[in-house]
Design a protein that fits this description.
The protein is of the alpha/beta class. The protein contains 14 helices and 25 strands. Helix 2 runs antiparallel to helix 9, helix 4 packs antiparallel against helix 9 and helix 10 packs across helix 14.
Length: 479
């Protein structure tokens, strides 16, 4: 009898030790790749190296896989090169960034159907007619552990993601924080709970207060470089800078169904010394389009700010359409540096990748003022619009620097601007849609894409120098 009891005790100890065994989950997270296909051979090589050590490696994207590279965005099936490359590397899931909608509903559905990985977003309800197959979450089984991944897509002030409203018609978007609570039950069904969000770093930090049941938030949208992982309210948050400059490698340690340790480190992709040869050949194939390399003009000095590039864009629209004034939402200016030398078709399409058209209005000076302010609030994370044909002094509220107290407009020579006079004003179709301001004229679509008009302007100029050009200043109200 004593021998039997000893045997049973030993068995219990072995079982307890086995049950308490620590296990690890390894993840590579990425966000806001914006179609930087040039970095995929290096990215694939990093994944190859990690998979050799961790065969069950998970790869997640926090959205905005597309928009920003004409080789991808203007492909025969728009954005297919990114899908093909993500399939080849073996992504496990992505959430929907606001730019995933840029090609419209039908194109999004087609891309999802061509993907070998699921798209996760719990707060999107598309009309079934679009065939947009999005899951709220997915359970992954890794190293005998249950990993629940819940997706969430960005919802802007207008009630839809930051893309042209037409791209989101007949799709219902629900509040992120509120909708995520409906999936709290996954905590009891999982060893690990991960939120895959495209809402922005500050929003993720705020969200962490309401999801203490989550172990990890993999975030995107704001292009915020987090050093490894940050802890907020005992939730780890990660995010990387955009355009596949670097990724984050995450290790979660689990014991008895609970995450007991979380570590994360950044891995540089740009300049990585190795390449995956198959992926490199795919990138070469997708890049074989000499039309994008055609030179339009020559920059005699580099453009070094969003303001300089935005002024050039709006000059192009104003001059080529014969308008008095032009402006663009600052979010429509997609990079802030271009070196001296050739200004190519590719440079234009990366600068203005959305396929917007130009819309012309007959506006009084007061209506223009109201529309500029409305554009600022609709595009507030990027700042005040870029302009041509006028100068603007934005007077911010002393108590709230996000609120405009007043806007002073002058003519380019500094003379008084007439608020009662009617002007021909041109802007892009996205801005025309988001700027909710009182105006009699609802605008006329000129059926000319904004990027094509910029190309025309550059060809007409030959050489350009926008060094130091700045048409928008800011001050703070005295009261």
């Amino acid at each position: 009898m004593k021998k039997l009891l000893l045997t049973l005790a030993a068995a219990c100890l072995l079982a307890s030790a086995a049950f308490a065994e620590k296990k690890e989950i390894h993840i590579v997270s990425i966000n806001d790749m914006h179609a930087k296909i040039e970095n995929f051979p290096q990215f694939a090589a990093v994944i190859d190296s990690l998979r050799a050590i961790y065969p069950e490696l998970l790869i997640f994207s926090a959205g905005d896989n597309r928009t920003g590279e004409p080789l991808n965005d203007l492909y025969e099936i728009p954005a297919y090169p990114m899908v093909a490359l993500m399939n080849q590397i073996g992504f496990d899931a992505t959430t929907l960034g606001n730019h995933e909608y840029d090609g419209g509903q039908a194109n999004l559905a087609r891309l999802i159907n061509l993907s070998n990985f699921p798209y996760l977003a719990c707060n999107i309800i598309p009309d079934p007619k679009w065939g947009i197959n999005v899951l709220p979450y997915k359970m992954f089984f890794v190293n005998e552990l249950r990993v629940a991944v819940i997706g969430a897509t960005q919802v802007g002030p207008a009630g839809h993601p930051d893309t042209h409203p037409d791209n989101c018609t007949e799709i219902l978007f629900t509040p992120v924080e509120e909708t995520l609570q409906e999936y709290k039950w996954l905590r009891d069904e999982s060893d690990v709970v991960i939120l895959l969000t495209h809402i922005g770093y500050e929003e993720d930090v705020e969200l962490s207060k309401y999801v203490p049941w989550a172990d990890l938030i993999i975030g995107g949208h704001s292009h915020t470089q987090v050093a490894g992982g940050e802890f907020h309210n005992d939730v780890m948050i990660t995010q990387d800078i955009n355009r596949l400059e670097r990724v984050t490698f995450i290790t979660l340690t689990v014991e008895n169904g609970k995450v007991i340790d979380r570590k994360a480190k950044n891995i540089e992709i740009a300049g990585y010394p190795k390449q995956n040869k198959i992926v490199a050949e795919m990138v070469r194939y997708f890049s074989d389009n000499p039309a994008f390399q055609r030179q339009l003009a020559t920059l005699t000095a580099p453009m070094t700010t969003y303001e300089e590039l935005g002024c050039m864009m709006t000059d192009a629209w104003r001059v080529e359409t014969g308008s008095d004034i032009a402006f663009t939402n600052t979010g429509g200016v997609r990079y802030d540096y271009l070196p001296a030398g050739p200004f190519t078709v590719s440079d234009v399409l990366r600068l203005d990748p959305f396929g917007n058209t130009l819309v012309q209005f007959s506006l009084t000076g007061q209506e223009l003022k109201d529309m500029l302010i409305a554009t600022h609030y609709a595009d507030i994370e990027y700042g005040f619009p870029k302009v041509s044909g006028i100068l603007c002094n934005v007077i911010l509220d002393k108590k709230d620097n996000k609120k405009i107290k007043d806007l002073k407009i002058t003519n380019p020579d500094g003379s008084k601007f007439d608020l009662k006079k009617t002007y021909q004003v041109v802007t892009n179709s996205y801005t025309a849609a988001i700027a909710k301001s009182p105006r009699k004229d609802q605008g006329r679509d000129l059926n000319r894409t904004t990027a094509a008009v910029i190309q025309e302007y550059l060809e007409h100029q030959g050489t350009l120098d926008y060094t130091g050009v700045n048409r928008v200043t800011q001050s703070v109200s005295a009261k």
